[in-house]
Write a structure and sequence with these properties.
The structure is a homodimer of 148-residue chains. With 148 residues, chain A is mainly β. In chain A, strand 6 (103-114) and strand 7 form a beta hairpin. The first copy, chain A, is built from no helices and eight strands. Chain A has a six-stranded antiparallel beta barrel with strand order 1-2-7-6-3-8. Chain A has a two-stranded antiparallel sheet with strand order 4-5. Chain A has strands at residues 18-21, 41-45, 61-67, 77-78, 89-90, 103-114, 117-121, 130-136. The radius of gyration of chain A is 17 Å and the shape is globular. The interface between A and B is large, with 65 and 65 residues.
Chain lengths: 148, 148
């Protein structure tokens, strides 16, 4: 079984489960990381995916995985944080949004849930960014295996 | 600019940057999480993506993002950990591999680097699992903004 075609690309299968609604309107104005002064935002969950939220509650720590829809995908090395004096590094050693598969990984707190919208933050993703997955942050306690 | 078609699916664009080579050969034998006794494994990076590794070193903590190629994608609710007595939950409140976009998120340590292979672990992904991204784990220290 393979989801990948002969050229190695996924066969058109990644499907957004929601979208970010934020006051951040473009990359230029966005912080590099959520904890660098990013605002809270809305995660509008698409109606077909709502059932997947059962058990998500205000106060939960989640990873939101986004698709950086304005990123460059032909970039393998960058000056970290876009600063030319930083020594060049491979994108896999950085959190640059420019990378072969521009997935964003955002640890957030659920501030509130209103119908099909989650208020989450802090998050540096810009308005209109597609969301492709949500996962609980697992607290790693050695020997503890009781997480969801 | 949009990478998504009218039906909301990504237009065939997710492209594996490598593949997991593991002694774990199927889901049945695999732990639920890396820290539940999973082995180390090899991450074979595809030649075209090698330049993205510049700066990745043994001892680094990374998130490896995989595509669970044997997962079910039509599942929105599960009994956590596959235990029928666990109350049903939305997949976004769990780490179930069965979910609309079966992305796996694996915190690992880089044990060694040999040419185009990274020895990483612990990781519960099975042999042949495609890898779609690698990111550094950022240590979140309030007020510190010096990460890559």
């Amino acid at each position: 079984m393979s989801d990948f075609g002969d050229d190695g690309a996924v066969d058109g299968r990644l499907r957004p489960i929601g979208v970010i609604r934020s006051d951040l309107k473009d990359r230029k104005g966005a912080p590099r990381q959520g904890r660098e002064g990013a605002p809270d935002a809305w995660l509008d969950v698409h109606p077909w995916a709502m059932d997947g939220l059962l058990g998500v509650r205000p106060g939960d720590e989640l990873f939101v995985i986004t698709w950086f829809h304005t990123a460059r995908r032909d970039v393998l090395q960058v000056h970290p944080r876009g600063v030319a004096s930083n020594p060049i590094a491979g994108v896999f050693a950085t959190r640059s949004p420019d990378r072969p598969n521009p997935l964003g990984l955002h640890p957030v707190i659920v501030r509130a849930i209103e119908g099909k919208r989650l208020r989450i933050g802090p998050i540096e993703a810009i308005d209109g960014t597609p969301v492709v997955d949500i996962k609980p942050v697992l607290i790693c306690v050695p020997g503890q295996t009781g997480e969801p």
